[in-house]
Specification:
Structural class: alpha+beta
Strand order of the largest sheet: 1-2-3-4-6
Shape: globular
Length: 124
């Protein structure tokens, strides 16, 4: 538990924002963390220490189609956070760019109850 908690703290210290997602009864169901990075959104959704999904999605997409990730990982929370934080910066030589598979549950842009504000000249 301590290692998983330290990884969540590492996300926060890296600039990720958090949402607590609740079920129909108002009980905490899962937690989502996300961060916009040069035209992409890195996000992680986790239910427990053993169940997490992390991905990088384009910040702007066709809303008539399911969201597609350029990178996605499913597995334990600690491993998911490590892999997400180790991704090269978007635009870097080794950064993933090809659409791989759908990731609608990681599509932060469509699940947020507010719009992301971008600074002037930002790529979105």
């Amino acid at each position: 538990m301590d290692l998983a908690l330290s990884k969540v703290i590492e996300l926060r210290e890296s600039g990720f924002q958090f949402l607590h997602l609740r079920d129909e009864d108002g009980q905490l169901d899962r937690i989502m963390a996300f961060k916009q990075r040069r035209g992409f959104i890195d996000s992680i959704l986790f239910w427990s220490e053993t169940e997490a999904r992390a991905g990088r999605l384009p910040a702007v997409r066709d809303s008539t189609r399911a969201a597609q990730a350029v990178w996605i990982y499913e597995g334990p929370l600690v491993e998911a956070v490590e892999r997400l934080l180790d991704l090269p910066e978007p635009g870097a030589r080794n950064a993933p760019t090809l659409m791989k598979r759908t990731a609608s549950d990681l599509a932060v842009v469509t699940t947020l109850p507010f719009k992301l504000k971008l600074p002037p000249g930002a790529i979105a």
